[in-house]
């Protein structure tokens, strides 16, 4: 992809580096947008979640445990008059203990395990299945039944897969049939067709941006022979 950008920028005699930076910046913005869409947390249906919470709130779980009788002790109680009444042994009277220096290095692994143990002690796990489902629902991890791998993509269900994959026809009204610009845009359309995190409208918007970008540089492209000198017709917007 970077080689295609380099080939396109070489067709311009002026502002070579500026053109290259603009194209690379646009490609990086598409990558960032796809990454944000991929990492966006799933948002469950609020109405279904509210109905499930109301159902779980009406359920009561009996957590009473049977009382166990303490075993009776058969030993007689010991009577202690004075614990400290015995004589001292004196074995540690002449002992020399070395104090630890303050520059002792700590092991980061033990510190990390200690912090993890504190987190586990502070976080109470769910005591039953209902509390676990409530926790998952609050975290947005609860799936509606029957399980559907396309849950949350109701709007994309109305769009055919061919609109995501076959994007090359959007190049025909304005892109040249051969040359570095055509090669670059073919790579862009192939990358967008394989991107599962962008909608069709977003893919058309990115193609429309490249069309406007090259149309602004049309005079330079004609002078360098990158595109033929044909009167340009303003094609319809791709955002529709």
TrEMBL record:
This is Small ribosomal subunit protein mS31. InterPro entries: MRP-S31 (IPR026299). Belongs to the mitochondrion-specific ribosomal protein mS31 family. GO terms for molecular function: structural constituent of ribosome. The gene is EOG090X04UC. The keyword Transit peptide applies. It is found in: Mitochondrion. Its main location: mitochondrion. Keywords: Mitochondrion, Ribonucleoprotein, Ribosomal protein, Transit peptide. GO terms for cellular component: mitochondrial small ribosomal subunit.
């Amino acid at each position: 992809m970077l080689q295609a950008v380099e080939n396109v920028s070489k067709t311009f005699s002026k502002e070579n580096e500026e053109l290259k930076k603009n194209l690379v910046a646009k490609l990086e913005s598409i990558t960032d947008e796809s990454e944000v869409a991929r990492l966006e947390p799933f948002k469950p249906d609020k109405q279904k979640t509210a109905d499930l919470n109301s159902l779980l709130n009406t359920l009561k779980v009996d957590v009473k445990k049977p009382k166990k009788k303490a075993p009776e002790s058969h030993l007689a109680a010991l009577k202690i008059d004075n614990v400290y009444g015995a004589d001292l042994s004196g074995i540690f009277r002449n002992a020399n203990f070395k104090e630890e220096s303050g520059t002792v290095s700590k092991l980061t692994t033990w510190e990390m395990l200690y912090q993890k143990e504190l987190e586990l002690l502070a976080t109470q796990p769910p005591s039953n299945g209902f509390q676990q489902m409530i926790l998952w629902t609050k975290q947005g991890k609860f799936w509606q039944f029957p399980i559907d791998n396309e849950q949350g993509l109701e709007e994309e269900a109305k769009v055919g897969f061919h609109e995501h994959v076959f994007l090359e026809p959007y190049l025909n009204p304005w892109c040249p049939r051969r040359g570095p610009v055509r090669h670059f845009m073919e790579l862009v359309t192939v990358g967008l067709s394989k991107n599962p995190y962008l909608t069709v409208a977003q893919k058309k918007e990115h193609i429309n941006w490249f069309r406007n970008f090259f149309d602004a540089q049309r005079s330079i492209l004609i002078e360098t022979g990158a595109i033929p000198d044909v009167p340009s017709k303003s094609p319809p917007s791709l955002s529709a």
